[in-house]
Amino acid sequence: MAISPTLFHPERYHGHRRRPPFFEGWYFKLIDASETHRYAVIPGIFLSKDPDRHHAFVQILDGSTGNATYHRYPADEFRAATDRFEVEIGPNRFSEQEMFLDIADDSRIARGSVRLGEPVPWPVTLTRLGIMGPYGWAPRMECNHGLVSFDHSLDGTMAVDGREIDFTGGRGYTEKDWGKAFPAGYVWMQTNHFETPGTSFVASIAIIPWMVSAFPGFIIGLRHKGKLHQFATYSRATTTDLRFTDGTVEWTVVDRRHRLRIRAERAQGGLLYAPTRREMSDRVGETMLSRVEVTLTDAQGKVRFEEVGRNAGLELHGDLDRLLALQIEEAAR
Questions:
Q1: Which residues contact 109 (CB under 8 A, 6 or more apart)?
Q2: Res 14 pLDDT > 90
Q3: In DSSP terms, which residues pair with 55 in a beta bridge?
Q4: 176 contact partners, CB below 8 Å, separation of at least 6
Q5: What confidence tens digit (pLDDT) does each residue in 122-181 have?
Q6: Residue 289: how many other CB atoms lie within 10 Å
Q7: Could you read off the pLDDT of 289-323 as tens digits, one per residue?
Q8: How far apart are the first and last CA of the chain?
Q9: Half-sphere exposure (CA, 13 Å, Cβ side) for 60?
Q10: Is the pTM of this model over 0.85?
Q11: For residue 129, what is the DSSP state?
Q12: Helix (H, G, I), strand (E, B), or coil: what is residue 160?
């Protein structure tokens, strides 16, 4: 059986030979040096079993105001390289090195070029295909995830609705998703603005369909001083506490060597479109104004890391009651 060349390159486009329903999207996070301007730019493609719903898109979220816009393009204006991460949607271009926007419609005008510094990806090995780990080998996952860069520098300007924003000296983050649909319920958070430069944190837990049932799968990465601390379902880490209130998300995970405690503050955000199997119809609330407290302790209880991440992205979406119920069932086993 031939192995797809994209298997070891999560950043590349995976949809060249995929049948509908299928979606793929990249998430570019841009924070300027003053931490005043926060943007998420999300290019992607959606292929439905109904050909009339095929289209490409670019979403833009102003994380400071919550203003989110969706810019739709014919599917044939989506072009992707086969041997590298390089995507074009109409006149807009995206890669690991640069993001170029040329959007002008009734909802927003956004033009400019931002160069992205050297990417810091989640490591890919034969047994662990990036952030998906061994699940990257599973052929029928509903939703796959890729971490293109934990943290990188920014250089360039973007004019948004007549206001020029200089991102030079700012920080960026890039990830992506592809598959048939987003999970029925999930929590996601990310920040790379800590007191210690170069530190980055990402965490998600979701309802994962598996055979005829489902389980609460999670992935967490804390990159600090060049070392990646990984906690995941596939690494035999376990969730000992997960709770949501109107104001916070509190989550604790443990493995044989460490305990990780997370407390994320919920904040006002904007609404983004997300894929179902039929169309881009789900409205997902995302904030870029959250703060995430992260505490890592070792088996002896010594604190190895304790800082607060700023400008954090945070999403809670879908059937969270079912997610919590599955987690309770998992903990009881």
A1: 103, 159, 160, 161, 162
A2: yes
A3: 46
A4: 10, 11, 24, 25, 26, 27, 145, 146, 148
A5: 999 999 999 999 999 998 899 999 999 999 999 999 999 999 999 999 999 999 999 999
A6: 18
A7: 999 999 999 999 999 999 999 999 999 999 999 99
A8: 37
A9: 22
A10: yes
A11: B
A12: strand
CA 309 from chain centre, in angstroms, equals 16
SS3 content of the chain, % helix, strand, coil (to 5): 10, 60, 35
Annotate 257-320 with three-state secondary structure.
Answer: CEEEEEEEECCCCEEEEEECCCCEEEEEEEEEEEEEEEEEEECCCCEEEEEEEEEEEEEEEECH
Is residue 146 a contact partner of residue 131, using CB atoms and an 8 Å limit? yes
Q: Extract the tokens encoding 127.
A: 């047994």
As given in the structure block, the two tokens for residue 102 are: 């040329």
CA gap 203, 239 in Å, rounded? 12
3-state secondary structure 172-213: EEEEEEEECCCCCEEEEEEECCCCCCCCEEEEEEEEEEECCE
Nearest to residue 113, comparing CAs of 71, 158, 59, 153?
158
Q: How far apart are CA 68 and CA 286, in angstroms?
A: 10
The answer to whether the CB of 151 falls within 8 A of the CB of 175 is: no
Residue type, 115: R
- Name 158's Cβ contacts closer than 8 Å, sequence gap at least 6: 30, 39, 101, 110, 111, 112, 113, 114, 164, 165, 167
- If phi > 0 it is left, if psi is from -120 to 50 it is alpha, else beta; for residue 292 that is beta
- The H or E element containing residue 35 is none
Q: What is the mean pLDDT of residues 96-116?
A: 98
Encoded tokens for 104: 């002008």
CA distance 126 to 122: 13
Which structure tokens are listed for 105? 């419609």
Indicate whether 80 pLDDT > 80: yes
Alpha carbons within 13 A on the beta-carbon side of 163 = 6
